[in-house]
Structures are given as C-alpha cells and as structure tokens.
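Appendix B. Chain record.
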Amino acid sequence: MRKLAPGLFAVAALVASVLVSPAAQAAGPSAAQLLAKLTSCQQISNGKYATDSGGAKTVPVCGKTGAVWYKADMDIDCDGQPTPRCNKNTDPWFQPQTAFQDSKGKHLIADQLPYTVVPSASGTFDYRKHGIQGGGVVAVIFNNRVEYTVVGDTGPADIIGESSYAAAVNLGINPNPKTGGTAGPVHYLYFKGSKVAPIEDHGKAVSSGEALAQKFLNEN
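Structure tokens predicted for this chain:
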C-alpha cells in the first residue's frame, strides 16, 4: 500500500526483470486513441486527491460516457498473498490482504495479477456510486502502452494512483515497492458496470478491456 513521499518518484523507471507478458502487447484501441478522449476533465469528485502522502491535492476524478478516469502517478501495491517479490521484507508497508478476493476466497497475488487500486470510499469520491466494483476493468495507459487490469484493492481515502507489481511490470515501470513506480503521467480509465469473473483471469480482463475500450471510443 502506498506510503512513499513525492521525492522518491524522481527515480527513473527501470526495465523490469520480468518479461512483459503477451497480454501487455494485446490488440484493441491504441494508447493514443484512448488518450485523445481524455484531454479535458468533467470533474465528478467532490474535491481532489494527492498523489502521495502529504502532497498537494491536485488530481480530480473525471467522468465520461460509460467511464470514470483520472491522471496521476503510479505507486506499487505489493499487498495480498506473500511471494518472494511481495512480502514484509521487500515491502515495508506490506499487507497480507487485498480488499477483493479471488474465486477461491483467497487474497490476490500482486506480482502475478495486474490490478489497480481505487481510493477507499469517502466524501471526496465513492467509487461504488459510479459503477466501479471489485473485478471491474481498468485500462491503465502509460508511455504509449495500454494494460488492462482489474480493480483489486482499495487504498487511502485521500491519495490516488496505484497499481500492482504485475501491472507495473507489464507497463515497463520499475515494480520495486520501495523505490519503484513512476511520476507519470499515468491515465486510469475505469469502465462502469464492468466485472471480470473470476477476478484472477487476466486473459478475460484483456479481452473484456479491448471490447470495452472500443465501446468507449464509439460513445465518446
């Protein structure tokens, strides 16, 4: 879970030691096509978020037809089932649980499943009132890449911009929970009313995401 200060994100993104999965190179609308629809923000949040603890609140949550989006940084979430890459020794802020669980009732595996973290419901923004749920599909756009993730965890109620170790790897972002992440810009595009079942099926997230992204382009 995010706790890093803004200064740590001056570290340039490193090439991940894990190869980018084929899903990261999937077909569907391009990053440029999606970003062309995200040039102006119709704010739907009651206030704005900081990207890091103690930072200025500069990030609004924006609305589009069939979607919710924001532009932020990316911090690395290693929470969930412990693995050699994600555990209390590799991540000082490690939590052995995620807000949403897999089809067997187990917490998610951050270094295997690309997932995105939505801020916990608050007076600023309650994701549940905007068609967003655990397993919902999110297109994460960075450096001309699109990675389709699921909503897998909730984070602090006043901070925004976080995805799992595996999502960072697939986007070519340093996934180290201590020193990794990127200042961005990273665009997070949530498709309202979407849900992948089982949540751990990344292939379904990709195929659903491609179809939803095309629908988004057609409607906006």
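Further analysis of this model is presented in Appendix C.
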